[in-house]
Amino acid sequence: MSEAGIIGIQVVLAYLPVMHEASLVASLLDILRAEIARRGVRSLSLVRLRCGVLVNVSPQALDMAFTAMSRDTEFAATRLQLITEPLRLACGGCSAEFTAEDFPAALLSPCPECGEEIGHKVLAGRELYIEHIETAD
Ligand SMILES: [Zn+2]
Questions:
Q1: Is the pTM of this model over 0.85?
Q2: How far does residue 77's CA lie from ligand 1's centre (Å)?
Q3: What's the CA gap between 91 and 119, in Å, rounded?
Q4: DSSP 109
Q5: Is the model's pLDDT at 105 over the cut of 80?
Q6: What is the pLDDT of residue 97?
Q7: Domains observed in the chain
Q8: Whole-angstrom Cα distance, residue 60 to residue 18?
Q9: Ligand 1: centre distance to CA 27 (Å)
Q10: How many A from CA of 120 to the centre of ligand 1?
């Protein structure tokens, strides 16, 4: 009985992140459909997304969701590229701007100028947008 319970938990943990990416891909496909209709083309060869590290998108899960959801559609041959944007902060003490690598600890990383660790403002890292598309003919 307890083993069955553990399996149940594993399924839920694996399922939730995929749902996040799946709803993202559903929105993306809607946007792409509108875009090819507007341009009068049949499909796209490449879609490049730029995604801030705070959006917390898993490249593997995004890829899986895109492959599954574009199968047998006009985007079956479209290549999806994901570029992760690093976290860029402005210091809460002296307003110096810096890039923090070690996410999520990065939100509290000491300012390289004055050493302040709290109150940093997020300048970049929350965005998610389509940076580039290439049409297929
Ligand atoms: Zn500072």
A1: no
A2: 47
A3: 7
A4: P
A5: no
A6: 96
A7: 2-136 (3.30.2320.80)
A8: 9
A9: 38
A10: 9
Q: Does pLDDT of 12 surpass 80?
A: no
Residue with tokens 């985007």: 75
* Residue 93: both structure tokens together: 């003490």
Tokens representing 102?
Answer: 């070690």
Going from the C-alpha of 137 to that of each of 31, 57, 67, the distances in angstroms are: 19, 30, 20
> Token pair for residue 33?
């459909």
C-alpha 121 to ligand 1 mean position (Å):
11
The distance of Cα 114 from the centroid of its chain, to the nearest Å, equals 31
Structure confidence by residue, pLDDT tens digits, 47-78? 999 888 888 888 898 999 999 999 999 999 99
User: DSSP 3-state assignment of 21?
Assistant: helix
Q: State in Å: Cα 96 to ligand 1 middle.
A: 5
Say what percent of the chain tops pLDDT 90: 50
